[in-house]
């Protein structure tokens, strides 16, 4: 029967079994819609990246002989809503079946399920054939347990997929090399340029502006650099193995103002759009290491693989275990508005100015910038997690709710009260100075807690612990902090300093 099959913008998996054979009765529909450009204000590079990748994917399908209906953002028939366009097409072309791939986002999952209920023709959904686990796997795996320990989940994944394993034991005798991976980057001679694919994106940028899509951040529209095809994504993966993997773990937590990417892979966009599969990434890295063990040590490789089969897969499991409630959690009851400088980068705090400025410029920041600079500040300053989520969901090219919200509301803001993390990730200037070159160029003094130029992170850190004592003091991983606080002499002065900063966040 004449079937309409929907492919969403983050379902660009050319290896899906749907595409094994061509069939004249099947039409694949893809659409650029304001519903998706408008649920949050996205970075311009994110919108461009998605549209370019979608268009390339539609071309690949057509080249393989599949029939594709592609609705450009400015197509006259575009209703700008997912279900509006589907209804229109089904009626116009007399489709008598509708099929879709399970979305990764709760919002779209509901929308499509409701839509199918309203249809008078039969419908069916399929797995996206991307993840290593089903939506329900994590819930079942931790059944009866109070907490979802990532490390336990990760080891299970290593065994299940036989990655870096020797039978039931880890190949090198150890599961985790985190301890080896905490170096600060210092030597600019070691820097390696990222693999980029400069292309002209002016046409799409023009359409985005004409259609009045509101975006954030900037773009060099003649030189758009992100990978937007499977072939380019595979090249980024090869480049990572050959040039970056040998230092990945070592400098994973390091921040350096001279380079946004350091030894990070820049694969999140390719993975989250499904141009690459997590298993192929991990297998490629594992095999590359096997062949190059003389040059690359296990700590680098294990550190990378844990991010993909551990954290990434785990976050997806938490998302499906806890949505929709997860999006409402606010453990600390934080209510402050996000300071204006998150949208402009205009602040005297060097770490924030740089991390935000870079995010606005590149639609990218690596994990520690997200967690220990911008996220850390938002948590210390008591920003409403809804506001924090909205920022992270918009600004990064890899931001899709299932992985954004679990990282932001969970890992970074501890708004879930400890589902994802065992304690809040907060720090004073001390940690930022240890891992970056930010503090030496800063208006504020990293060593001061009080006084005119005292680093805001220092007093806000103690203010955070002090105001949340009833919620945190019992946590065995935090006890030490309260003991230190207890002994500190100038408590009231520190709190006063923090209050002053909190009243004037926009002036920092
Ligand atoms: P690399 O450092 O090279 O890591 C390799 C891959 O591992 C990444 O591509 C990613 O797929 C995976 N990975 C690494 N860390 C995580 C993690 N914590 N959770 C899930 N996968 C991970 N990642 C997103 O993909 N989308 C987001 O919207 C997102 N929002 C975040 C928000 C906050 C507050 C924080 C602290 C982290 C967030 N992350 C998010 C996780 C991580 O920061 C990015 O995946 C990473 O920076 C992407 O850059 P990369 O590809 O160079 O990563
Ligand atoms: Fe950031 Fe404080 Fe260091 Fe300045 S001194 S860069 S505000 S941590």
UniProtKB/TrEMBL annotation:
InterPro entries with a match to the protein in the record: Crypto/Photolyase_FAD-like_sf, PhrB-like, Rossmann-like_a/b/a_fold, UV-DNA_repair_photolyase
A Pfam family that the UniProt record links to this protein: DPRP
SUPFAM superfamilies documented for this protein: Cryptochrome/photolyase FAD-binding domain
Designated name of the protein: Cryptochrome/photolyase family protein
């Amino acid at each position: 029967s004449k079937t309409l099959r929907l492919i969403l913008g983050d379902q660009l998996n050319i290896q899906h079994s749907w595409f094994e054979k061509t069939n004249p009765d099947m039409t694949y529909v893809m659409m650029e819609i304001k519903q998706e450009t408008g649920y949050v204000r996205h970075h311009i590079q994110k919108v461009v990246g998605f549209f370019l990748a979608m268009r390339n994917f539609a071309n690949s399908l057509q080249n393989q002989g599949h029939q594709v209906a592609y609705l450009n953002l400015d197509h006259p028939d575009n209703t700008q809503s997912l279900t509006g366009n589907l209804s229109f097409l089904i009626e116009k072309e007399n489709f008598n079946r509708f099929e879709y791939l399970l979305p990764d986002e709760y919002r779209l999952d509901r929308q499509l399920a409701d839509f199918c209920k309203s249809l008078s023709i039969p419908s069916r959904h399929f797995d996206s054939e991307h993840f290593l686990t089903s939506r329900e796997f994590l819930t079942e795996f931790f059944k009866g347990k109070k907490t979802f320990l990532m490390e336990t989940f990760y080891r299970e994944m290593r065994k299940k997929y036989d990655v870096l394993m020797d039978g039931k034991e880890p190949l090198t005798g150890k599961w985790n090399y985190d301890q080896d991976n905490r170096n600060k980057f210092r030597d600019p001679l070691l820097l390696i340029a990222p693999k980029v694919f400069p292309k002209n994106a002016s046409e799409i940028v023009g359409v985005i502006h004409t259609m009045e899509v509101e975006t954030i951040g900037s773009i060099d529209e003649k030189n758009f650099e992100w990978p937007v095809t499977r072939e380019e994504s595979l090249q980024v993966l090869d480049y990572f193995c050959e040039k970056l993997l040998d230092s990945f773990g070592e400098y994973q937590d390091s921040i350096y103002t001279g380079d946004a990417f350091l030894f990070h892979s820049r694969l999140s966009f390719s993975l989250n759009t499904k141009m690459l599969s997590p298993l192929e990434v991990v297998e490629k890295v594992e095999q590359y290491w096997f062949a190059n063990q003389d040059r690359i040590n296990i700590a680098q490789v294990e550190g990378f693989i844990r991010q993909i089969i551990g954290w990434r897969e785990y976050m997806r499991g938490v998302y499906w275990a806890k949505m929709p409630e997860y999006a409402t959690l606010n453990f600390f009851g934080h209510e402050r508005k996000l300071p204006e400088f998150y949208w402009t980068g205009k602040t005297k705090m060097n770490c924030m100015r740089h991390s935000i400025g870079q995010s606005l410029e590149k639609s990218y920041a690596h994990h520690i910038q997200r967690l220990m600079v911008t996220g850390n500040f938002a948590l210390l300053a008591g920003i409403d997690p809804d506001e924090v989520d909205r920022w992270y969901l918009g600004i990064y090219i890899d931001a899709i709710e299932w992985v954004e919200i679990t990282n932001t509301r969970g890992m970074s803001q501890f708004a879930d009260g400890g589902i994802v993390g065992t304690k809040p990730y907060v720090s004073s200037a001390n940690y930022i100075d240890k891992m970056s070159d930010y503090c030496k160029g800063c208006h504020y003094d990293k060593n001061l807690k009080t006084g005119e130029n005292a680093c805001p992170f220092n007093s806000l850190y103690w203010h955070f612990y002090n105001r949340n004592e009833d919620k945190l003091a019992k946590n065995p991983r935090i006890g030490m902090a309260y003991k230190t606080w207890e002994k500190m002499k100038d408590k009231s002065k520190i709190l006063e300093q923090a209050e002053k900063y909190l009243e004037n966040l926009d002036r920092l």
